[in-house]
Amino acid sequence: MFDYLVKRVLQALLVLFVVTTVVFILLRGIGDPVKLLVSPEGTFEDYENLQRMLGLDKPLIGQYMDYLSGIVKGDFGNSFFYNRPVLDLIKEHIPATLQLSFAAIVIAIPFGIFSGIISAVKRNTPIDSIVTTLSIAGRSVPSFWLGIILILIFSVWLKMLPASGYGKFKQIILPAITLSMGLLASTTRLTRSSMLDVLQQDYMTTARAKGVKEKGVIVFHGLRNALLTVVTMVALQIGNLLGGSVVVESIFAWPGIGRLMVTAITNYDYPLVQACALVMAVIFTFLNFIVDILYTFIDPRIRQS
Amino acid sequence: MKKLLEIKNLEVCFYLDSAIPAVDGVSFDVYEGETLCVVGESGCGKSVTSLSIMQLVATPPGRYLNGEILYRGKNLLGYSTDEMTKIRGKEISMIFQEPMTALNPVHRVGKQIGEALRIHEGYDKKEAFKESIEMLKIVGVPDPVRCANSFPYQLSGGMRQRVMIAMAISCNPNMLIADEPTTALDVTIQQQILDVIKNLKTKTGMTVMFITHDLGVVAEIADRVVVMYAGKVVEEACVKDLFANPLHPYTRALLKCIPRVDEKRDKLDDIKGIVPNPASFPSGCRFHPRCEEAIKICKTIVPEEVTLGDRRVSCHLVTQKAKECRL
């Protein structure tokens, strides 16, 4: 187990290193932040001064080395645009993102598993068709469209829920639903197919032959086996929520790390984008790590090998 | 002897691409305390018959078209699923062919055995687990405590089948249905499992219905035998009579297939042809295309069942002989 952990940590570090490097290189291609920051009346000298101040006058490899050594020291630099330490900015914005992701998970997982079981147990009935259709739709609808439609219906027409903002419970509902939709749909699909497979298994007949009631057969004997596949896939999808939050936060003006990153990109704010990307990558790898550990708890065959 | 179970004219059909009459008018009785073997090739409907008793046939695609299954005079097919759960595991238990897949891979063995006790006898978790260790002792598991704490994948096939038996007998059922419990095991383990079942029977006096295609097993444990072919019962007799004087050509052919120690053979006998496709059974006697003794009438007319003392048989040859004798 210890060897395994060490191996996983090393793998994670490698992933993070690659992410850092790729983001660093790609960013230099999007545009020149100095041109954006220097005032329109500024001289060429102003430009060069600013460039020097931001450390962008050094050759690329030098900048990269500075960046890496900064990370090791825990210093991610200052934001060009806000002129504040990047880490502080991220600390301010990450709770909002975590809240939103958490809310989306709380919606998606229970509902997804529940509707997946229902549609597997009631296979080939109208209920199954409805659930299947809805989940395919949920999987296919892009979140920027869904978000706008929800705003239109619930904020503009029905005036039930606010279209944007942060802090009140009502304000999290629409963005959380929008963000959860993809995860909800894929959890449903996965649970359904996995449950269908499990329903065919001999041990389900054994359980029935013992006198276990149908609900007990499904929940106690079926669900746990069905969840083996669902857990891995779903947990990987949770990582995707982070990507989704970039879009959803922008639509609903949700002050999370996703929106922070989008504004940072439009501002050519190199240090901020780099740090945001790194944070997301860290969360993503960490989640994968947790999934593997979790998996061993559900499947005893893995725990002991 | 008292009848414990009466199956009357049972018809079970599966509706897949076409209608498949897996069990077609099967009738036989099971007497209290006996061991009844149901014999036949794969696909003859013996498993479906046994699953029907417990109402465990998946519906759909299956459907009970006709017939009655009387347990102590009450028709089980008329029971609701809730009523059936009170019968399953308590009155009638079942063990299955594949001990590898019949146990739930994610629960400890002890928990799985104890489950029936918790449902039917109101045991709490701890009591049930303790009792499951006792059950494992009864079925001859060498280290019952460790076994109860194991997961199925940690046990051998023979051990798993013992676990299945422990599970099935935990609530002292009146009847045990064993659906080819030895088929997936190697011969020495088969013998051990048969011994376990035989011992339990002498101890508790429970009735056993044993599904198998292995006539060696039949000779070893059966009191009476029902021979099935293509969804129908072709012969029923007590085990001695059946082996000494098989009446149906199919039974004779089956017995001929068993190699004997005192005979030298170059080639094993087999029954020519293949098991008919249930979607299109042959007309007349369903065995006639493979029967070496078939006569004209076999091709067109379904043979009626003849009762001769305590045995039954459905074959035109026997019917004719019986008529000749009477004349």
TrEMBL record, chain B:
Domain of life according to the entry: Bacteria
InterPro entries for this protein: AAA+_ATPase (IPR003593), ABC_Ni/Peptide_Import (IPR050388), ABC_transporter-like_ATP-bd (IPR003439), ABC_transporter-like_CS (IPR017871), Oligopep_ABC_C (IPR013563), P-loop_NTPase (IPR027417)
An example Gene Ontology biological process: peptide transport
CDD domains: ABC_NikE_OppD_transporters (cd03257)
Domain ABC transporter positions: 7-255
PROSITE patterns the UniProt entry points to: ABC_TRANSPORTER_1, ABC_TRANSPORTER_2
Family: Belongs to the ABC transporter superfamily.
This protein's name: ABC transporter ATP-binding protein
